[in-house]
Amino acid sequence: MNQNQPQLPKGICVLETQVAGHLFTNNTAALGMLKDETIGCVLKPFGKPECGARELSFYESLQNTHDPQLKKLQNFIPKFYKKIRLEVNGKDHTFFQLEDLTHGMQQPCIMDIKVGKRTWDPLASPHKCKVEEEKYARCKQVLGICLPGFQVYTENGYKKFDRDYGKKLDAEGLGEALRLFLNAQEMVCESLIEELLRQLYDIRAWFREQKHFHFYASSLLIAYDYVALQKRLQNEKCTACQKSKQQQQHYIPNGNGLHICEVVDNLDDVDSCYPTSPTHKAIPSFENESLNTCRCLERYVKVKMIDFAHVFPSANNSLDMNYLFGLESLIAILEAMLKR
Q1: How do strand 218-225 and strand 311-313 relate by DSSP bridges?
Q2: CA–CA distances in Å: residue 60 to residues 70, 80, 308
Q3: Which one Pfam family would you cite for this protein (predicted)?
Q4: Burial status of residue 26 (CB atoms within 10 A of its CB: 0-12, 13-18, 19 or more)
């Protein structure tokens, strides 16, 4: 449990499963994320006024939209309920009330993956640009993604990794971290990877069409329930899994020896086509193939876009190539795990 417990209203507690972002600590005034135990939602601090206002505007624009493309985006983000005020440590603060993506999970494995080689927005100062450029540079500039934090349950117990761990990773190290998170260091859980890819393909398809927004410093949150997934993979209750996998093993040897730290072209050189990840050409895409994914896994495996304080209207009606580049890299790494 968190030893730096703040003074909170009844029914509100610290979100112990938070893996990235500002946390409650004794030596700072930063607010961490909270959980409303009475209705099963999470509370995200409003943050800096201009950032909070921008994120609120983003959520409200999706609530009020009649645009079919933006309505589709609602499927890829946590549900936004409302803006609320709470007293924390004797002071009033504003929070976003959001869907708890891990609600009902017994042992939630959670990873925050920040997407994009560029993580500063158009209004950032030169100093801010420089600071962001240097963060997670060893993997971010190669893959267009970085790893602020994650937690994982394994047969040996529970582990949590923070941003200090993520900052030490290079591109190949990030791949190793993903395998650790997915319990795939020795054997790959095929059904889990396939379900993650199915959801990521849907998000990628949306980004390949949308020209409404550019997302800076936004993340993908990946969550799965270790306990529930193990039960499903053991065919204890899921007849759909039995039918789809009756002639297949749920686990395949992890033969992923692919190096993912090749030099890639400058992002500015590919603005006329979809970006490709460093390993994209070497790995066959499973998007157009029939993935043997049992759709019941959707309840236990989730991929959602989060953190929208730095979302801006698309410049010149263009695709968000920065986000797409990182998304392609993540997909390529997961596809490599399925490569036999």
Answers
A1: unpaired
A2: 12, 9, 12
A3: IPK
A4: exposed
pLDDT in tens, 272-321: 344 444 444 444 455 655 455 556 678 889 999 999 999 999 988 899 99
- 200 three-class SS: helix
Phi/psi-derived region of residue 183, left when phi > 0, alpha when psi is between -120 and 50, beta in every other case:
left
Of 200, 186, 197, the C-alpha closest to 335 is 197
Chain centroid, CA 217 distance in Å: 12
How many C-beta atoms lie closer than 10 Å to residue 72's C-beta?
14
What are the DSSP calls for 134-172, one per residue?
HTTHHHHHHHSEEEEEEEEEETTEEEEE-HHHHHT--HH
DSSP β-ladder status, 218-225 and 80-88: unpaired
What is the three-class DSSP state of 214? strand
CA distance readout (Å), 275 to 144, 188, 228, 323, 334: 11, 27, 35, 9, 17
Angstrom distance (rounded) from CA 203 to CA 201: 5
| Type and span of the H or E element at 90 | none
Give 314-340 pLDDT, tens digit per residue.
988 899 999 999 999 999 999 999 885
Place of tokens 């890819």: 197
Q: Contact at 8 Å (CB) between 189 and 251?
A: yes
R_g of the chain, CA atoms, integer Å: 20
Q: Could you please report the per-residue DSSP string of 162-180?
A: -HHHHHT--HHHHHHHHHH
Structure pTM?
0.82
